[in-house]
Amino acid sequence: MAERLAAAAALRAAATPARTSPSGRRAGPSNSAFFPSSSSSSPALRHVSLRAAPSQKAKAAGTGRSVRCMAAASDAAQLKAAREDIRELLSTTHCHPILVRLGWHDSGTYDRNIKDWPERGGANGSLRFDVELKHGANAGLVNALKLVQPIKDKYPSITYADLFQLASATAIEEAGGPKLPMKYGRVDVTGPEQCPPEGKLPDAGPKAPADHLRAVFYRMGLDDKEIVALSGAHTLGRSRPERSGWGKPETKYTKNGPGAPGGQSWTAEWLKFDNSYFKEIKEKRDQDLLVLPTDAALFEDPTFKDYAEKYAADQEAFFEDYAEAHAKLSSLGAKFDPAEGFSLDD
Q1: Phi/psi of residue 127, each to 5°?
Q2: What is the distance between the alpha carbons of residues 311 and 4, in angstroms, rounded to a whole number?
Q3: Which of helix, strand or coil describes residue 336?
Q4: Which of 125, 182, 222, 270: disulfide with 217, CB 3.0–4.6 Å?
Q5: Phi, psi of 36 (to 5 degrees)
Q6: What is the sign of the dihedral through the CA atoms of 185, 191, 193 and 197?
Q7: Rounded distance, CA 282 to CA 278, Å?
C-alpha cells in the first residue's frame, strides 16, 4: 500500500507538463507531427513493477525456431516478456498515446529514395539519442523513453528499435484496437551520428494539408488509403499547446486526466481505440474536440474522403486497414536479423 501511495504521489508531482522541448526550446506548430506532442499522462519515469527476466535456461528451451531467434537482433523470449511488462505499464500509467507516438516517430523518418541503411532512416532505434529527441517534432518523447528504459535495461537482449515498435503496437491493442501483424528482429543504429536530419516528419498545419501529407507519406512509400487509416490513430491522445502550438490548454474531456490534466483531444474517450476520430471530424460539432488542418483534409480531399467516410461508417474496415498500415509503418527502413524477421505469435 505504501508503495502504491508513493507512486500516486509521484504521478501528481509530475502532473504539470513540460513547456519546452528537451533542448529547452519551445516546440512550435511547424514541428507538429503524427501525434502533435500528445500524451495520456505526464510520463516521467515512475516506479513500475517489472517481472523477472527470463533465465538463460528458459531462453534456450523450446523449438528450433525459438533457438534461431536467440541469435537474431532481439531475443524472442525476452521480447515476449517485455510485452507483458509493457501491458502492466499501460495499465498503471495510461501512457498509450505517447508510446504509439514513440514507435511512429522512430519509423516515420524513412526515405524510400535512399537505399543505404541507416541513412534511409526508419525504424532503427535512433530516437533514443538526444540529437534526435531534440527535434521539434519529438517534443515530450524524452518522457516516453524514460518509461521504456527500465524495460530495456531489464531485457538487454532486445533492440531499442524492436522495443519502440513493440510498445507502440501493444498500446494500440491494449486500447481496444486490432491485433497487429507485427514482425521483429530490427537492428539498432549504434551512435547519434546515424540519426536522420530534422524535418522528416509531417507538419500538422501546412498551407496545403493534403499535398503535404502526400509528399511526406509518399516519401515513406505509403499510399492514400494508408495515410487516412494511420490518421485514425488520433482517436488516442491529446495535443498540448505548450509543446506543439496546437489545441486548448484543457477541455471538459481532459481537465481531470487520467494522468496529467490538460491538452485537447480529438475524441471524447481518448484512451479508447475505435473509429470515433472519423465520426467526430466528419460532424465537427464539439468545440472541445481538436481538428487540425491535416485532420480536416481527410474530408476535404476527394480521394482521402472516400476512405474517411468508409471508416466513419465501418469500424471493422478501419481496423483491418489500420492493422496493415501500422505494421508496414513499423518496418519502414528497418534492417532485420534474421532478414525475414520473426513473429511473437507463431
Answers
A1: -70, -10
A2: 41
A3: strand
A4: 222
A5: -70, 90
A6: positive
A7: 6
Q: Write out the catalytic residue numbers.
A: 105
Q: Between the CA of residue 169 and those of 118, 174, 218, 289, 292, what are the distances in Å?
A: 23, 9, 22, 25, 24
Give 126's contacts (C-beta < 8 A, 6+ positions apart): 106, 109, 118, 132, 189, 192, 194, 195, 196
Match 516506479 to its residue by C-alpha cell.
Answer: 47
The pLDDT tens digits of the residues spanning 216-261 come to: 999 999 999 999 999 999 999 999 888 788 999 999 999 998 888 9
Burial label, 43 (beta-carbon count in 10 A; 0-12, 13-18, 19+): buried
Residue in the structure block whose three cell numbers are 507538429: 32
* Total residue count of the chain as it appears in this document: 346
pTM, full prediction: 0.82
What is the structure's pLDDT at 264?
96
Pair 317, 310: CB distance under 8 Å: yes
Q: Which amino acid is at 301?
A: D
Residues 6+ apart with CB under 8 A from 146: 43, 44, 45
Q: Which residues pair with 265 in a beta bridge?
A: 238
